[in-house]
Batch of 2 targets.
Target 1
Amino acid sequence: MADNARLQDHGATLDKVTAAVREAGDGRRALAAAVGVLKQQMPDYTWVGIYVLDGNDLVLGPFVGKPSPHVRIPVGQGICGAAAAERATIVVDDVNADPRYLACSVETQSEIVVPIVHEGRVLGEIDIDSDRPAAFTAADRTLLEAVAALLAPGLHAVRTADSSTD
Ligand code: SME
């Protein structure tokens, strides 16, 4: 029963993120809308943010939670940089046991990082920290990978627009 309840929560959250992304209109606002809905709907998500790839660095975009010292992370560094380099979701049940971990808050116990990939290229990633150990299940991964897929075309569009006006 508890598992069903969790799955329903994830499904309802995906519906709310989908609606918020549609309403947001443009890709940059969609990132902020998705972050806001995820933080509001999921009690274990203590810190929710999106990093956007800029050259070889991940630059912090919209987030909800305490300010992070890590506003620019080179690909390959930290759990964020590892997920971008591997182009794969990384779930860390105990951040203090992972030598790659870049600390954001002493309360953080677990983390999930989900790359936002468009046409095979990493454009950014969703990063979520929890104050609960091993907070991220297969259902969280499924939810967040669906959200990343939802955000990818809009993020691609704003990055293309930004680079053509540079
Ligand atoms: N923990 C991340 C750094 C970002 S903060 O969690 C916001 C990492 O190890 O890459």
Note: Strands lie at 47-54, 57-64, 72-74, 90-92, 110-118, 121-130.
Target 2
Amino acid sequence: LSSQDTDSSIRQTDTDAALARFSAVQKGYLQDPYIKPFVPRSHLQPPRPPLINIGTFVRATAIDDLVFQWLQNSTNQGTRCQIVSLGAGSDTRFWRIATGAHKDALAAYVELDFPEITTKKAMAIRKSKELSAVLGSPADVAVAHGGTGLTSPTYHLIAADLRLPPADTLARLLAAEGSPILSPTLPTLLLFECVLVYMSPAASSAVLQWFRDYFAPARSAVLGSIVYEMFRLQDSFGRVMVENLKARQVSLPGAAPYPDAASLPGRFLNLGFTAAHALTLKEIRKSYIPPAELERISHLELVDELEELDLVLEHYAITWGLFVPPSVAGSAAAD
Ligand code: SAM
């Protein structure tokens, strides 16, 4: 297989993610008025099985909560912040934030993905009045990079292959001298929702390192990062997951270093991040989703594979890390 074929299989996972989200919305697990324009009519399928819907619900609820806390913190500290979603696919998070309680907290929201995906997304946004109205007045929104992207006062959609050296991609696209899209002095949150697993560990570390170095040590902003990923793929259930994806020409080089939950924070700690934590979706469902929500979703559809649910959920985790540059840590200590 050529690398083009395997890349197109990787891109295909975005359709799966969008359909899973759409299914969870249709079944009442999640609310998202913005997902429909990203699901082409030709791709519409019957809703996903209950296990997938519950997994999508747990993951989305947990990540929404972490992002909400990040935005809330920025608001409390009287500063605006930036969010960068890497491998954003058809994600609708920007629209949900920009029309929600923390809309004024966003100084910039950047989405990166392969050009085929960003071109498709740019077209879907321009076609939808609802989506484009959130970006600003038509005069404020411009097609960028030959139709592969969009720029607006807050939202930026940019084509990039995250496996390429960041000095040639991220530096050029996000940190151009004189007019950087990302300010090096604002708190910044990186979102990697189901993307690093498709890249080599070296390429993932290079991306994280580039952001870490952009904000420190001379700079002064806190960097947060959330990774959602499958892991523990060496056990018997994990091997079945790997085989299923292999049958679709998708390989998972990024999962190799993470055989268990204890290894996950190492992704950040090995790069000098200040703190990092990980929780599996199984733990999140049991201990962090409000009981009232669990009660509500238990009435949505009949689930007769509850044991299998735990098995699936313990192979997915959310890991988050915080990097506080020495200058900020130092001044906090002095205060
Ligand atoms: N983050 C979105 C979500 O959670 O709904 C989409 C997840 S989808 C499973 C994975 C996305 O990562 C796809 O849109 C794919 O094109 C993108 N991706 C994978 N490898 C990439 C790379 N090397 N550079 C840029 N994007 C990549």
Note: The mean pLDDT is 93.
